[in-house]
Design brief:
single chain, 296 residues, mainly alpha, DNA polymerase, domain 1, hpI Integrase, Chain A, 2 domains, globular
């Protein structure tokens, strides 16, 4: 990144606003692309107009960038120009009045409840063949599905975050917000057994998910583990860790959970974010009706 103003902005996101490394990396990639575009046409990024922003949107569209990704680019630019405005480096935000492209509403994909037990069978079979221990893989799935955590949240869990007496787990979520998530009896037993089995998990400050080298598990490794076992179990197009979180929320709603309670467990700041799962449940209900009702 050759632009010092962009570098300062990214540093603020990391050091002051405490954004995750993944979020800062996404901002960096968006701004690097934008900076290259402006430099190529001789535009000064501190003096661009709405017309130049619209040209940039057209440029992204012609490059085949999806509407969802264009929306993310615009969100990055809004944050960047708000920063320039606060620093008195510009007098007006060129993003004011610029609208996001209209998106088609996509419902979250979810796995079937019955598939979750099959996943554990797949883990056992894999570990039996490869002589690896199955417990860590199961703990990963329980953190993502049983506790409804984001992957970055699961990787950040420390031993001290688990309250064995109260059957809860403290989670550091988006924006460094902390929430308390209940632990089911099966999850708690699995977590306890894993703790007893891993001799390197000695101190309360240690990350719960670690490698054989006693290092914190990487996000890439976690993704690969989840993708591997989901690929053996489901035909869903997307097989990421977030599918398990979506599935957990949908299954809780299917089984009668209160929407407010689900919101708190997921750590959503706005109820409207959680309400998408009501649409998923309704769509699943329609699907079951069409497949099974004689009059459908």
């Amino acid at each position: 990144m050759n632009n010092p103003v962009i570098s300062e902005f990214l540093d603020k996101l990391s050091s002051v606003r405490r954004f995750s490394s993944n979020t800062v990396r996404a901002y960096s990639e968006d701004l690097d692309k934008y900076n290259s575009y402006c430099t190529g046409f001789g535009y000064d990024i501190s003096k661009v107009s709405k017309r130049i922003i619209r040209r940039y949107i057209d440029f992204l569209d012609k490059e085949g960038v999806s509407k969802r990704s264009v929306t993310r680019h615009l969100s990055t630019l809004r944050g960047f120009y708000r920063y320039l405005l606060r620093q008195n480096l510009i007098t007006a935000n060129p993003l004011t009045g610029i609208r996001n492209p209209k998106l088609e509403k996509r419902l979250p994909q979810v796995i079937n409840q019955a598939h979750y037990d099959i996943i554990f069978e797949r883990i056992d079979n894999f570990c039996r063949i490869t002589k690896r221990d199955s417990m860590k893989f199961k703990v990963i799935f329980e953190l993502l599905y049983g506790c409804s955590l984001r992957s970055i949240e699961a990787l950040s869990v420390k031993i001290s975050d688990i309250n064995w007496e109260k059957s809860t787990i403290r989670v550091l979520g988006k924006g460094s917000k902390t929430r308390i998530v209940p632990l089911g009896a099966k999850s708690q037993k699995l977590f306890s057994d894993y703790l007893q089995q891993e001799p390197v998990l000695k101190t309360n400050s240690k990350a719960y998910l670690i490698t054989k080298e006693d290092k914190k598990l990487s996000q890439k490794s976690l993704y690969n583990y989840v993708n591997k076992f989901l690929s053996q179990t489901t035909e869903l197009k997307k097989k990421s860790p977030h599918i398990l979180r979506h599935s957990s929320a949908t299954h809780m709603l299917d089984n009668g959970a209160d929407l407010i309670a689900i919101k708190e467990i997921l750590g959503h700041s706005d109820l409207s974010t959680t309400q998408v799962y009501t649409r998923v449940s309704i769509e699943r209900l329609k699907s079951v009706y069409k497949k099974t009702h004689p009059k459908s």
